[in-house]
Amino acid sequence: MALHGKRILLIISGGIAAYKSLDLIRRLRDQGAAVRCVLTKGATQFVTPLSVSALSEDRVYQDIFSLTDEAEMGHIQLSRDADLLLVAPATADILARMAAGIANDLATTALLATDKPVMVVPAMNVRMWEHAATKANCALLAERGVAFVGPVQGDMACGEYGFGRMTDVPDIVNSVVGHFNGGPLAGRRILVTSGPTFEAIDPVRYIANRSSGKQGHAVAAALSGLGAETILISGPTALADPAGVKMIKVESARDMLAACKDALPADAAICVAAVADWRVKSAATQKLKKNGGGPPMLEFAENPDILKTLSKGGNNRPELVVGFAAETENVVDNARTKRKTKKCDWILANDVSPTTGTFGGDANTIHLVADGAEEAWPTMTKQQVAERLAARISDHFGKST
Ligand code: CTP
Fold first, then answer.
1. Do 7-180 and 189-400 come out as alike in CATH topology?
2. CB of 52 within 8 A of CB of 12?
3. Ligand 1 center from residue 304 Cα (angstroms)
4. 397 CA distance to ligand 1 centroid (A)?
């Protein structure tokens, strides 16, 4: 009963994910929390006050101008009588009103009047989540100390795919537990590299690879969800910045290494980026022209190996250094060799042959190679791989402290 004695004010706003709040109420109560609910007008289109009341075994608050609500408990008291205000689902609209300080219904009035921690679980269409207005609102709220849980990527009720899906209920409960306990990785600083690197040929052309950054970004989000101070150093991707992580955007392998070194010391480094092994030795400062002399001869130079550099880092070596091995053949053997040559602690090997669809896709099949331990993980979504890895990292630090 990890939430025994905790009082949670659950604010349910009007999105299709609101139906999941019913399960959330049940699971929070299973952990010993007392859950009192506020429904926005929109939320009542998706869940009924009766079902919310039945599950929370409490009355449901909806109307700021209701005499009965006010007589029983004033809206100011409602917002302060809780240990945590949890907004799930949090629509783009309620996030915007929170950011602007608008108090035009009971939910937003309680959020403005509270002196208690606030946690939001966004759920919306991917375009709405990626809209500059939503990004700015979330950045402002995060800066003011509002904790974000998700969103995660996946299929949405609207038929689209991407970031915007509400975090699964068990993971929301974990985050709430993490909030009260500080999270199993609280106090740990973890670097994650993600995405491809771009290596310039001239000012307009570059060499890159097919990495989408999905796996690295998901790892960063999962670590942050467990309370780690997470620094995500990423090459160019089309992904939204995961909430709650410190984002550092780079282009080339050399920039990525410099950013990693700047971010040290850290307790762990998780190298998920598909770093280009080679760069053009001397990138042209002007655009290369067709001058009738045939194609240019490009001379290549080897890029620094970030994983190896961090693993060999001497006094500044993170306690735990983890790499991914992208292989197209002899996956496990190559991973074992890579772990030794790169001197990292764990390697997560994955088969990236075109037939597997791993690069750019959503699923991944991992084989973990550690010192004296090997594990074959079933095929999972990149999100699930991230959560399993984050849990394993948390176990590692649990044992080493
Ligand atoms: N890596 C890195 N810096 C590089 C190359 C790779 O940090 N310059 C890291 C990756 O982030 C990954 C691991 O090393 O964690 C293995 O990357 P992979 O592409 O599988 O291996 P390479 O070192 O590039 O070896 P090869 O191309 O021979 O398979």
1. yes
2. yes
3. 10
4. 25
Residue with CA at minimum distance from ligand 1 atom 8 = 305
213 lines ligand 1 (CB under 6 A): no
Q: What is the pLDDT of residues 47-58, one digit of tens each?
A: 999 999 999 999
Q: Per-residue confidence at 161, pLDDT binned at 50, 70, 90?
A: confident
pTM comes to: 0.67
- The CATH T-level fold of domain 189-400 is Rossmann fold (3.40.50)
Q: Work out the burial of residue 112: count CB atoms within 10 Å of its CB; fewer than 13 is exposed, 13-18 middle, 19 or more buried.
A: middle
Nearest alpha carbon, ligand 1 atom 21: 325
For residue 288, the CA-to-ligand 1 centroid distance in Å is: 29
Assess whether the C-beta atom of 324 lies below 6 angstroms from ligand 1: yes
**Domain residue spans of the chain:** 7-180, 189-400
What average pLDDT score do residues 307-311 get?
98
Residue 152 to residues 97, 124, 137, 344, 360, Cα–Cα distance (Å): 22, 10, 18, 29, 16
Residue 345 Cβ contacting ligand 1 at under 6 Å? no
Q: Is the CB of 253 under 6 A from ligand 1?
A: yes
Interval 225-253: pLDDT, tens: 788 888 999 999 998 777 667 889 999 99
| Whether 37 is catalytic | no
Which of 313, 329, 330 lies closest to 321, judged by CA? 313
CATH number for region 7-180 = 3.40.50.1950
